[in-house]
């Protein structure tokens, strides 16, 4: 018999709808029930593509005896962290404070007032490696609740008081060239020169840091910055982290060499990495970077596109409960598909070994060198992909998250501008139309939709900021003033509803649900921090609109987290990248004149410039809704490129060499 989650729209919660656990969703009704029953709350937080969430579900939540104990001793609440990042943020902070680490599934025991008194992550069904079983933990919590409740309540009160203290990120500092150069020094000393990245294991793609390093190199020509990007991007794109057959990146590598991935594919990772590889190709002309960018764009559109025009959140790590089943191969399977000669050739090329690089003699495909016969590889790839498509496939979390769709709109708009891809532009437009039509309700954003129906949860800071960034990129790609206007409205609302009174921003709106504290995390996680994304959007909007006030707001907000950029740049790559754009201007580029091949050629030259954060528009002079084209006429020529910085412009030119010189990264700095 289904529990209360059966009526949820969240794919993650629906995964648990048939558990024998009496799960309920987060809300006042659950807390009222806990008060009436006089029992604690067992809060379990996860997400649909999470492998260890599935493991704990199979081991414990699907077990009848375990479920009966949970139902008898607790009110059990399930939360989808992707729908409720505010709830996740608060209790993740408590978990990290109590245990020194965090992760999902997150398991937290609360009072009926929402105060945590015991926190953890995954718990096994049997005691293991010093860890109690989940059953033992529940019994211990229940006994303490019965015999030592005053101690638990005192502990929970201390935790709430600690969480409620005002957060300090250090004294505000201006993020200047000295701070950014010092951040690169810090990164260089933690860089893995052999394999790329900045961790040992597990290794996550450092997308925001890589983007910052590309911008830093554009400004300074520091060879270290480019080396860190090139090494990391090549190792990731050649290893098992990258899907060598279909494109797209997995969430992370379980080892330090990017060989074995954690197989879930997330929308946000792939949107961010599409931007990084696209910009690396623009900087260096790398064929590998261009191939990874094109294939990742194709993956987003093909595998994550929804019928309504948006982008689904993720593909699962597991297939039929087995991690990696869809993706791994043996030498024998290659021979079966390809024949003896091509099978042996492919096994050598893709590092598929008899003993396996993954589990049970299976190997994850790697492409450590380019094939000596590209056509042969293309044929092999096509055949393997066709056979793989016939295997059982991972499930898809098809909810549409505002912020992550904003990331995809940004990346695909840029891909369209730099490569001329009509498919990428159409996909970006469709997503923007869906999100602005469905997720904007009475001028306020909602967090998610599914099947074209908007959810009830309020949008958070990153939703406003990332959608605004996406619409600004789409405005540049299309020349449609609607997207600039809508982005401006979102950013005006962001400033009204999220400001913290000290120059920064909270992560939740002032009229959002009151939790035990109002979340405010200035550091990057898997996605850019909300405050960094807001600063970036405000800076770009100021340059595109001609309004100076948003730039001042961004200056003040970035200063509030300047100390984090200086001290811990790996946690502040997105903010550091925005600071590079602010140092560069950013440049404001207008390609003004009648449509045609010559204008297209000048636009391509202008957009090939690497000046950090540069904005560009293309269209007829004085086009409606495009401030950068206002008054852009030259009596002596019908077509010209205007390059400005801080609204002060160089002499316009229609000479491609002159345009290329004007948009060079160090111009005007």
Give your account of this protein's structure.
With 669 residues, this protein is an alpha+beta fold. It has 4 domains: 4-164, Glutaredoxin; 177-316 and 397-584, Glycosyltransferase (Alpha/alpha barrel), CATH 1.50.10; 327-391, no CATH class; 587-662. It is 49% helix and 10% strand. The chain is built from 25 helices and 21 strands. It has a 5-stranded mixed β-sheet with strand order 1-3-2-4-5, with helices on both faces. The protein has a 4-stranded mixed β-sheet with strand order 19-18-20-21, with helices on both faces. Strand 10 (318-319) and strand 11 form a beta hairpin. Helix 16 (402-419) runs parallel beside helix 18 (461-478) and helix 17 (422-438) crosses helix 18. It is globular and about 90 Å long. The termini are far apart. The relative contact order is 0.09. The mean pLDDT is 95.
State the domain count.
4
Strand arrangement within the widest β-sheet reads 1-3-2-4-5
C-alpha geometry: globular
What is the CATH class name of the largest domain?
Mainly Alpha
Q: How many DSSP E strands? A: 21
CATH topology of the largest domain: Glycosyltransferase
Largest sheet, in brief, is: 5 strands, mixed
Distance separating the two termini: 66 Å
**Structural class, judged by helices and strands?**
alpha+beta
Percent range of helical residues: 40-55%
Whole-number mean pLDDT? 95
Number of helices: 25
Percentage of residues in strands: 5-15%
Runs with pLDDT <50, length 5+? none
Radius of gyration: 26 Å
What is the CATH architecture descriptor of the largest domain? Answer: Alpha/alpha barrel
């Amino acid at each position: 018999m289904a529990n209360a989650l059966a009526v949820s729209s969240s794919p993650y919660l629906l995964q648990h709808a048939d558990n024998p656990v009496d799960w309920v969703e987060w809300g006042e009704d659950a807390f009222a029930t806990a008060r009436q029953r006089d029992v604690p709350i067992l809060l379990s937080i996860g997400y649909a593509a999470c492998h260890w969430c599935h493991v704990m579900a199979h081991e414990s939540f699907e077990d009848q005896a375990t479920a009966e104990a949970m139902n008898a001793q607790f009110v059990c609440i399930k939360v989808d962290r992707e729908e409720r990042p505010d709830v996740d943020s608060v209790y993740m902070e408590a978990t990290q404070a109590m245990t020194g680490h965090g992760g999902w599934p997150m398991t937290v025991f609360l009072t009926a007032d929402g105060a945590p008194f015991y926190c953890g992550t995954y718990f096994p069904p049997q005691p293991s490696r010093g860890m109690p079983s989940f059953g033992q933990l529940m019994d211990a919590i229940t006994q303490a609740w019965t015999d030592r409740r005053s101690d638990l309540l005192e502990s929970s009160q201390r935790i709430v008081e600690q969480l409620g203290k005002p957060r300090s990120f250090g004294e505000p500092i201006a993020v200047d060239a000295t701070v950014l150069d010092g951040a690169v020094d810090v990164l260089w000393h933690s860089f893995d020169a052999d394999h790329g990245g900045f961790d040992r294991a597990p290794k996550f793609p450092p997308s925001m840091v890589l983007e910052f390093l590309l911008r830093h190199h554009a400004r300074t020509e520091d060879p270290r910055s480019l080396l860190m990007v090139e090494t990391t991007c090549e190792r990731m794109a050649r290893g098992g982290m990258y899907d060598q057959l279909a494109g797209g990146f997995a969430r992370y590598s379980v080892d330090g060499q990017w060989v074995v991935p954690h197989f879930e594919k997330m929308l946000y990772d792939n949107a961010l990495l599409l931007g990084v590889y696209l910009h690396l190709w623009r900087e260096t002309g790398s064929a590998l970077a261009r191939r990874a960018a094109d294939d990742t764009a194709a993956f987003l559109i093909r595998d994550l596109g929804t019928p309504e025009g948006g982008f689904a959140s993720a593909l699962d790590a597991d297939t039929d409960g087995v991690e990696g089943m869809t993706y791994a191969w043996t030498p024998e399977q290659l021979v079966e598909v390809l024949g003896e000669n091509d099978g042996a050739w492919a096994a050598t090329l893709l590092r598929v070994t008899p003993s396996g690089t993954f589990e049970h003699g299976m190997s994850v495909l790697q492409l450590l060198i380019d094939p000596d016969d590209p056509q042969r590889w293309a044929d092999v790839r096509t055949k393997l992909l066709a056979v793989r498509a016939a295997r059982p496939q991972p499930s898809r979390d098809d909810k549409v998250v505002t912020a992550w769709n904003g990331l995809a709109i940004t990346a695909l708009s840029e891909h369209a501008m730099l490569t001329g891809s009509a498919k990428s532009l159409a996909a970006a437009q469709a997503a923007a139309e869906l999100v602005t039509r469905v997720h904007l309700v009475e001028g306020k954003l909602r967090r998610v939709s599914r099947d074209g129906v908007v959810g009830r949860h309020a949008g958070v800071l990153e939703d406003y900021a990332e959608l605004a960034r996406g619409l600004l990129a789409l405005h540049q790609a299309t020349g449609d003033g609607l997207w600039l206007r809508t982005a401006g409205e979102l950013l005006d609302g962001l400033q009204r509803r999220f400001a913290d009174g000290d120059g920064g921003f909270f992560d939740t709106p002032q009229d959002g649900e009151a939790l035990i504290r109002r979340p405010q995390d200035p550091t990057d996680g898997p996605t850019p921090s909300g405050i960094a994304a807001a600063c970036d959007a405000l800076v770009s909007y100021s340059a595109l609109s001609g309004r100076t006030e948003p730039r001042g707001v961004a200056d003040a907000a970035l200063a509030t987290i300047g100390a984090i950029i200086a001290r811990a740049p790996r946690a502040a790559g997105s903010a550091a990248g925005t600071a590079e754009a602010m140092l560069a201007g950013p440049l404001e580029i207008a390609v003004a004149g009648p449509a045609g091949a010559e204008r297209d050629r000048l636009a391509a030259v202008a957009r090939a410039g690497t000046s950090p954060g540069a904005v560009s528009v293309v269209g007829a002079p004085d086009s409606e809704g495009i401030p950068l084209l206002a008054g852009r006429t030259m009596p002596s020529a019908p077509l010209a490129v205007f390059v400005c910085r801080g609204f002060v412009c160089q002499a316009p030119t229609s000479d491609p060499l002159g345009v290329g010189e004007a948009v060079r990264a160090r111009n005007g700095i």
